[in-house]
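Quarterly update from the structural biology core.
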Amino acid sequence: MIVVDTDNDRLQIFSMGGDFLRRIGEHGSLPHHLSQPMCVALSRDNEEHIIVTDSVNAAVKIFKQNGDFIVAYGDNTMFEFPCGLAVTSHNYIVVSDVCKHCIIVMHRNGEVRNTFGNYGDKITDLDQPYFLCVDQEDRIIISDFGNTSIKIFNIDGIILQYFTQLDFKLHNEHYVTLHGITVDPDGHIVVIGNSSVYIAANNGRFWEVLLPSDGLFSPRGIAYSNTGHLIITEYDEHHKHQVSMFKYNTDDFYSLNSVPALKLRDSSKSSNISGTTAKDSVDGITYGELPSSLDSEPVRFDMEISTDTS
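Predicted structure, tokenized:
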């Protein structure tokens, strides 16, 4: 499991039981350094290189599994605050830029294939898109923080679907803060909203998956393991950093497949928004095979949070 340790400017690698294995990166501005890394993913090839967004150095950086630095892509003209990260089945690297309010799709060699998104509140616009993922059809699914919405685009930047807080139907929540986002094997969107984890039906309605009563305190990043677990990173202002793994049964949400999809509304109008192989990665987490001994009880381990990077 590879976890982005943002404040310590490094990646930390653990066994799936939570045992510390090694770390990658150190603070600095040289190509092999990291400064406030945000999200991590693996390349979709035999090498499974580690790809990370480096927000302060405004770059996407790639390392070997053993931690050896390979290459850095980007500069201050290409990125301003690269954050969300995913890799498509064709090995395109998809990056969200929070400050430029856009999505950059890159070839594996670092060349830009295309970009899309502008600041605003129309359905094709974005406002601080911190997190994203790609589904089994290589659709790009974005957690649009500032617009409190989920937006789905194809690889060329054409809007396919979007859901707003009105579609979520969380009547007890006056405002929903969206964070990490992933998809399960059935293509359902699983997203962090406030301090809970929800699954989104085809019409955008949110259904509860995990709540604070299940032990969540401040979830941020999320990833799905094909062995059937959700892996969640959590941290709060009191410096409690934790990774949790929960058993996730897709059969519990099978009935959502019958919910009709919400039709795409007129893209020329404002949306009137009111209110993270057995290996893959999303939203700051990369995971491998989970031990078969795990059951429905969550497995948790604390992150080391000292500033010693030696």
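The chain has one domain: 2-302.
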